[in-house]
């Protein structure tokens, strides 16, 4: 069996690559080792970081690629690959319009981690991946669920296809690796991120590093492994009713306290940095503390901001007073009351925050007192949902070997690649990267084929 382009993985990146390649006239085969599509895409909060969109214009939000570029570089502490940042910023609006043209609908724009202006565009990720798969199949792409890629076929230094887990040789002129990260591979996590041993493990069941290892065997370089971080906001009970991405009430006005009842971090920092700080506390546990005013900002369309949904599943504690709330969650009541009083007094007087907090998230929103009963507490820790590091690639999404040279015939996109995020993470750039880089990889692979 032959195909001009093989896309390995049926998450957002792989499906975007398949559609783009097929729209360019290539014959495409999509491999997905799991029975279902979506991968980590459908487990995410569904936020895409786009700048200059129609939704932002309607909301009166001024944004542009230059501002997005600055946020990416500053949040990534300039450890990002500038060429990949440029690709993201230059292609993101066209990718957004491409997805809108396929029927994807985005909701109200929100502010979040690493954003100097609100640019998190929510969408239903299951609709997103299903729309792309339907489009790919309408263009003649073959979809093979339950079929994993086992090894790359390499001949004379060039990739000429893949061998499946069933032993089949699938020849191709170009292979696009979009197989996700390795959040479900304990050995790789222990090797690259031993600090995450205290974090919970999440992500898609298929995120075991297959594509990374196949490309690694073919000589590919790997980048950004020191920056694997856990995502703050997940409930710490691994056997509880969480089953999602957690909540980030801190970005709507909550504070984070540890088991002593005291704050320990600037809550406006990127939630992966907050996650690092949380893992360093006693037991790796913190509590997001907020009041009725923050609860009113709950938004059911965005999982990380859907606070109200947690009142009925046992994940959220509530009490009429801070003292009762403290006793309920097992922290010293006098310490929690003093912490909230000090926080409120600093806001009202305009004094500098002792942890440097000046906004709610990134550069957006002003901190507000926590004063309106009832009061709420969400036990929180960090979870490794995605690995945000991976293969070295060039701006054409071609995989580079350990010497920085192109491996002919091999492309990659999505969570399996590194270079974009650097040392920090801007909310929405994981889903955004999957779409932007996936589409670009498909266009380039299809043209090469």
TrEMBL record:
Cofactors, names only: FAD
High-level lineage: Bacteria, Bacillati, Actinomycetota, Actinomycetes, Streptosporangiales
Gene3D superfamilies xref list: FAD/NAD(P)-binding domain (3.50.50.60), Succinate dehydrogenase/fumarate reductase flavoprotein, catalytic domain (3.90.700.10)
Keywords from the named record: FAD, Flavoprotein, Oxidoreductase
Top-level taxon in the UniProt lineage: Bacteria
UniProt KW Flavoprotein keyword: yes
Location of the FAD-dependent oxidoreductase 2 FAD-binding domain: 5-430
InterPro entries for this protein: FAD-dep_OxRdtase_2_FAD-bd (IPR003953), FAD-oxidoreductase_2 (IPR050315), FAD/NAD-bd_sf (IPR036188), Succ_DH/fumarate_Rdtase_cat_sf (IPR027477)
Flavoprotein keyword on record: yes
Protein name: FAD-dependent oxidoreductase
